[in-house]
């Protein structure tokens, strides 16, 4: 079951979860997760089933096959240029596209002057132009990408998944960490907090269903750059103490 130990570690990295946060999702300990990832122990079938179901992954694939980043990430990145898409008309749907200039119009009236076409099976009901670098990393969500979002109820927000909230008159997007009645929105890098939101005060929230990008990116290279930058910063602090 070597595949499952790799899949658990990949899942953690993709969702921006440390071992303790991942363990809390399934009533486990940090030591449990560490032993699974290092191959010193194997999760019980009940535990493997809970993890697979939580992240909507086939149990057979999760246990027996090392899965790719796209298969584990919880959404499918659409890399094809829209101008080259050969999907027939009856297999696409049109949803509003919201640029920074039309945010207030969309929030107040639910309308925008532009729309985009997406596969009909996607659950997204609107598209938002993403700004910021806090989600760059293994998932590869970059400044200028388009987020495909599905409106959900506040009670449907899930720990460890990427959501977008209407918060303080602006859209904020990040990975959800739920602690009691508080949601902490984090970026891909450990320690990066985007916002803290009271669950009882949520007005509007959407779950990420896909990403449209018109750039080719090397996910592993982006992650490596991030780690190098962190190590350089650590070295500066160490040298400053000497």
Report what the structure shows.
- With 242 residues, the chain is an alpha+beta fold.
- The protein has two domains: 2-72, lambda repressor-like DNA-binding domains (434 Repressor (Amino-terminal Domain), Orthogonal Bundle); 76-212, Umud Fragment, subunit A.
- It contains eight helices and ten strands.
- The chain has helices at 2-15, 19-25, 30-37, 45-54, 59-64, 69-72, 103-109, 219-241; strands at 76-78, 92-98, 114-119, 126-129, 146-152, 162-166, 171-179, 182-186, 193-198, 205-212.
- Strands 1, 2, 3, 4, 5, 6, 7, 8, 9 and 10 form a ten-stranded mixed sheet that branches.
- Strand 7 and strand 8 form a beta hairpin.
- Helix 2 (19-25) crosses helix 3.
- The protein is globular, with a radius of gyration of 19 Å.
- The model is unreliable at 75-89 and 216-224 (pLDDT under 50).
Per-chain topology:
Blueprint lengths: L1 H14 L3 H7 L4 H8 L7 H10 L4 H6 L4 H4 L3 E3 L13 E7 L4 H7 L4 E6 L6 E4 L16 E7 L9 E5 L4 E9 L2 E5 L6 E6 L6 E8 L6 H23 L1
Parallel strand pairs: 1-10, 2-4
Antiparallel strand pairs: 2-3, 4-5, 5-10, 6-7, 6-10, 7-8, 8-9
Low-pLDDT segments: 75-89, 216-224
How can the largest sheet be summarized?
A: 10 strands, mixed
Strand fraction: 15-25%
Overall geometric form? globular
Fold-level CATH name of the largest domain: Umud Fragment, subunit A
Q: What's the order of the H and E elements?
A: HHHHHHEEHEEEEEEEEH
Ends distance: 46 Å
């Amino acid at each position: 079951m070597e595949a499952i130990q790799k899949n658990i570690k990949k899942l953690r990295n993709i969702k921006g979860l440390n071992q303790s946060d991942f363990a809390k999702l399934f009533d486990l300990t940090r030591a449990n997760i560490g032993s699974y990832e290092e191959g010193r122990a194997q999760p019980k079938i009940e535990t493997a089933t809970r993890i697979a179901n939580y992240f909507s992954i086939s149990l057979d694939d999760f246990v027996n096959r090392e899965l790719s980043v796209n298969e584990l990430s919880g959404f499918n990145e659409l890399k094809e240029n829209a101008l080259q898409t050969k999907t027939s008309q009856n297999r696409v749907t049109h949803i509003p596209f919201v640029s920074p200039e039309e945010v207030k119009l969309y929030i107040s009236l639910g309308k925008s002057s532009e729309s985009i076409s997406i596969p009909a099976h996607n659950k997204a009901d609107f598209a938002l132009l993403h700004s910021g670098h806090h989600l760059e990393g293994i998932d590869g969500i970059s400044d200028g990408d388009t987020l495909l979002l599905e409106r959900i109820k506040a009670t449907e927000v899930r720990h460890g998944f990427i959501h977008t909230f209407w918060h303080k008159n602006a859209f904020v997007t990040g990975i959800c960490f739920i602690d009691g009645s508080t949601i902490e929105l984090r970026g891909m890098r450990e320690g990066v907090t985007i916002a803290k939101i009271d669950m009882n005060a949520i007005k509007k929230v959407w779950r990420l269903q896909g990403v449209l990008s018109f750039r080719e990116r090397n996910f592993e290279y982006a992650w490596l750059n991030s780690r190098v930058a962190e190590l350089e910063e650590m070295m500066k602090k160490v040298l400053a103490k000497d």
